[in-house]
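Example: ABC transporter ATP-binding protein.
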Amino acid sequence: MITISNIKKHFGSLEVLKGISLVINKGEVVSIVGPSGAGKTTLLQIIGTLDKPDTGSVTIDGQEITNLSSGKLADFRNKHIGFVFQFHQLLPEFSAMENVMIPALISGASRRQAKEKALSLLDMLGLSDRVNHKPAELSGGEKQRVAVARALVNDPSVVLADEPSGSLDSKNKSELHQLFFELRDRLGQTFVIVTHDESLAELTDRTIHMRDGMIVDDTRKEQEQTVEP
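Written out as structure tokens, the predicted fold is:
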């Protein structure tokens, strides 16, 4: 699903990623952990086509994306990648349903198609009674579930999450973590999650530890073994 080959990234004289190579399989729920400054978010942004590496390549769902033009990258991102952020980033003037519809409309769906898909996802996520509420009228957990629905509306191959439960209380955090696995089992998406939350990292199929711009440990839970580069 995702193949990363020898990715390097500098910001000025600072080398943030130092030759990252990684393969993530379809349907995996993968957590990326490590101290601040390890390069986790930079790696996630490169996978998500929000940033480009200085060297190396990224292939997602069979498409090498590193050298695509900005327009083609934007189109690929909208159709193949969903994003969930720490702070939901919902547009306050729109309802939950309208927020979920936006990526579908951008990708060319009709308003009827986008509305049907948004309502279906919101119902699946337990928000059928909140579809016409604006973000200010929703709880923290509800806002994040709307954000998850928005990430899924275009049936992306990959969902990328950056500290998705960082702003939630323990109850909503636990529910969101469980939701990722339910969605993977039901819809088949691949989830890549940057987190400081050890309880989430312990649940994922695989945990990738980063430090100083490198992968220092890659543990697959189902194999009960650790592979060190």
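Residues 162 and 194 are 5 Å apart (CA to CA).
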